[in-house]
Amino acid sequence: MSDHRMTRQQIYDRIRQTSKEEYILEEMKRLGFWDTTEEAPKISEEIIQKKGALRRELRELMEKQRMFRDKERMLAEMRKKRMADALARREETKERRKAEKEARAKAWQEKKERSIVFLGKDYSAGLSQEKADLEKLAALNLPAFQDIKELAEAMDISVGRLRYLCFQRKLSTVSHYERFYLAKKTGGKRLISAPRPMLKNAQYWLLENVLSRLEMHEAAHGFVPQRSIVSNAKLHEKKELVINMDLKDFFPTVTYPRVKGMFKGLGYSEQQAIIFALLTTEPEVDQVEIDGQLYYAQKGERYLPQGAPTSPAITNWLCRRMDRRFEGVAKKLGWTYSRYADDLSFSANDTSNISRIIWQAQQIIQDEGFVMHPKKLKIMRRGRRQEVTGLTVNEKVAVDRKTLKKFRACLHTIETKGYQAAEWGQGFILASIKGFANYVRMVQADKGQVLCERVDRILAKEENKQAWKAYFANPSTKKYAYEAQKQQAKTEENAVDLGSSGLAESLTPVDPQQKDEEQWWSLW
Q1: 88-116, pLDDT tens digit by residue?
Q2: pLDDT tens column, 420-464
Q3: Segments in the chain below pLDDT 70
Q4: Bridge partner residues of 183 (DSSP)
Q5: By CB atoms within 10 Å of each CB, which of 303, 323, 451, 472 scores lowest?
């Protein structure tokens, strides 16, 4: 017999767990009053155990009955259970949503790495349209791209960087262009928007791989390989009458929808056309400084910037129909037509159709979405000096005699008194005379060669060598933006300080063949 004795409380607890009879029976067996080895009445033991089970069940039922009778307790228990269930469901939902969020973030990141789905409020509607016209692209010998990732790889940039270059905001702290003003020969100012290096590289890629593959109309001579101001002027040699016209605000007239439509017409998808159009256009902006931070606020519609390497090629392609119409009218009336950028030239030996050619030209220009400059219509007869893109064409293509005479006088002054006593162009005079001599040689090889040799002798002098080296060794020297323009730009509202932000590295060099209102060498 064991000497172990339970306390009163332990006995009560044991009875509650079983029943009084079951406890007595267990104690009798434990203490030896009920010999378990001998035969014992089975029925009594079974009855006792069944009785205990019924009592336990009854106790539970009575507990539930008491709970249901106590309404407040019942509601509390129900709320407690409901809160426990809700908490469990909440945790489950939280984990599920967390997993879904991570999956969406991963999918979005993967999508951003291979595609572009948003580029601003007004420029994202067609980004989901990725189907291109492969047959049309192949017919024009243009590269095709399956998706944006392939396009970005071809441009040697990431999709994120391509998105950065194209993204459009009404108000931004970032500008991809350096803006400054150049004085016009006829007065006023011209806004030049020079792309910064990252955008300029993308534009040059687009120019070399897409735009340069397009076959321009034969009447277009500006920014076309194997053509120049010389080839443009030669068409109008020895004519009785020469008419020059100018398209007003040529680049700003070509807006974003027109550029996007051009790329779409080439066969590119809506998505790719949007990206190409955003890369090659810019809006007019106001510069606003708030709390020391410079903001660029968009003022109007996007258009072709004057200063981007892609702008001339785009306008040449967009002007093909206009060139065809002009050429058709010119041939019908016995005239010769050519175009260099925004300069239109007509010439003929029969002067009887002057009014008709001018009237039809005005109609065609208006139909094509351009505006003829009312103050730049020039009618030049044989008896006076006839000019086409700055070159005299009365007898043969040549540089104006008066200009050559002034240039020779300038060289003489430099040879006798030094370069400080002479004036030529708007920039560093030694660079200006070098550029003009090369220009003359391009137009008139014999005269130009003599002038180039003379300029080389001037530059070979020791004092001029030192001045040349000092000028171009100076880090603050801006080869294409000079002190005169910089001083003017500082006084202009919303102008960019040309002495800062690396303008020399971001400007596109002046094309010696480019003709604008002032002669190209004046920019050197």
Answers
A1: 999 999 999 999 999 988 888 877 777 88
A2: 999 998 788 999 999 999 999 999 999 999 999 999 999 999 999
A3: 1-4, 34-45, 67-69, 475-524
A4: 189
A5: 472
Token pair recorded at residue 180: 């400054």
Place of tokens 């267990």: 26
Provide the residue count of the chain.
524
In sign, the C-alpha dihedral spanning 507, 508, 512, 517 is negative
- 5: which strand partners? none
d(CA 431, CA 468): 8
The three-state (H, E, C) secondary structure of 284-300, written as one string: EEEEEEECCEEEEEEEE
Round the CA-based radius of gyration of the chain to a whole number and report it.
Answer: 44
Rounded to whole angstroms, how far apart are CA atoms 105 and 499? 44
Please give the structure tokens belonging to residue 116.
Answer: 């572009």
Q: Are 209 and 187 in contact (CB under 8 A)?
A: no
Query: In the block, which residue shows the tokens 């101001």?
Result: 229
Backbone angles phi, psi at 220, to 5 degrees: -85, 125
DSSP category for residue 255: B
Q: How far apart are CA 215 and CA 224, in angstroms?
A: 9
Chain centroid to CA 81: how far? 59
Residues 6+ apart with CB under 8 A from 346: 242, 243, 245, 330, 335, 336, 337, 357, 361
pTM listed for this prediction = 0.72
Positive or negative, the Cα torsion across 34, 39, 44, 47? positive
* Residues 502 and 409: beta-carbon distance below 8 Å: no
